Amino acid sequence: MQDALHRYQRRDQGGLNSVEYFVEFGEGPEGKPLGCGTFSSLVLSSWDYFIPYKFEKEVEEKVFRKLPTKSKLPKNKYYDFRDMSMTYSNKESAWCIKCFGPDERAVKRSQKIRASYLNSEEHIEFQGQIKLPSLYEALRYIFVVLLNTIMCLPSAGRTLLQKYPSLFSAGLFSKRGPSRQQIMESFTKLTFYADGWKKKAADSEKQLTKPDKKLKLTVTGPEIAYALTTICMVQAALTVLQDSDRMPFKGGVYTPGVAFENTRLQERLEERGMTFTYEEIL
């Protein structure tokens, strides 16, 4: 996702202002392939989302405090994100719920690394949504998210959630897990909408004018939890081994956006069936 986002930056010579993405989990005739492992990841991710302060503070002190003038990212003036848990998207003509995963923090951290160590002044507002087929499904997911939010904070609550996934997810997840047929029939689709500027300008000048360019990127792949995750992890590992000369630093721990920006990761994923389609819509 982060690699695709920065491919956007390279295509949009005038610079980007904001990116909003929508992720859709498609299913086949056999239904959704949602297992307890996926639910367990959701529980732990929810807990991490609401209790990030200690780790974030350590990162700020040890990684970005050395360059305080660049570690704080400025707010862009022009963007129209709705900071709501559930909303109707006119872009996708569908009900959506906000992504509460680590994506937004990872993108911000990528930008901080670039500002602090790679002399990049680019700052992009970023937000993700999960696209759902109906209002009923959106309300169902919101119920699961709210229940997770309440119960994931104490360790006893996390234990109960992971022990009884079907009960606490309104039947969305189960210990039985998906069948091979369900996995084969399902797909993942991510749609990115970006706005930016047609001409290159200094950051201070950009803030004075509204973005005058819009781009769209559509990424498709197989079922997300089992097939797509496996493909991405293996290809990312091979990229680290074989494209190390294209990485920005000799070693260390970095976000995917920083580590893979100039590598062949996207080409590797395309060779294994994923598609990346760019469009100019303004």
TrEMBL record:
Coiled-coil regions, chain positions: none
GO annotations of cellular component type: lipid droplet; mitochondrion; plasma membrane
Domain of life assignment: Eukaryota
Entries under InterPro entries matching the protein: Saccharopine_DH-like_oxidrdct
GO biological process, one term: glycolipid biosynthetic process
Alphabetical list of PANTHER family matching this protein: SACCHAROPINE DEHYDROGENASE-LIKE OXIDOREDUCTASE
Name of this chain's protein: Saccharopine dehydrogenase-like oxidoreductase
Natural source organism: Araneus ventricosus
Gene coding for it: Sccpdh_4
